[in-house]
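wait is this the right file?? whatever heres the structure
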């Protein structure tokens, strides 16, 4: 079960424009369907690495939609806006994954 910290709820409300009641549902979707560190390459991979190196306890970074979700185990800690120049790459990787799954 995915939990969301109060800070995570605030950031989701601020950056994802959702109500705090929907925070756990969206966090679960981002955790399950978001791009993992292993699925990234190049400059996007270095961006995800930098987020991990900033705080090594945040051991699970997921890219989903236009946001970057930072988890510590099964707890959503915060949500960041993904830099705009990475969005086309994220969308391409998500489409590729969907096509591979069927």
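ok assuming it is, sequence goes like this
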């Amino acid at each position: 079960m995915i939990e969301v910290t109060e800070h995570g709820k605030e950031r989701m409300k601020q950056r994802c424009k959702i109500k705090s009641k929907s925070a756990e549902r969206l966090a679960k979707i981002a955790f399950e369907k978001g791009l993992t560190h292993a699925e990234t390459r190049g400059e996007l991979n270095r961006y995800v690495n930098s987020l991990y190196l900033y705080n090594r306890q945040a051991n699970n970074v997921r890219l989903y939609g236009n946001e970057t979700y930072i988890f510590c185990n099964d707890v959503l800690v915060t949500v960041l806006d993904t830099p705009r120049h990475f969005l086309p790459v994220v969308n391409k990787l998500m489409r590729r994954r969907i096509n591979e799954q069927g």
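The beta strands are 3-4, 60-64, 67-72, 75-81. so i think its the right one actually
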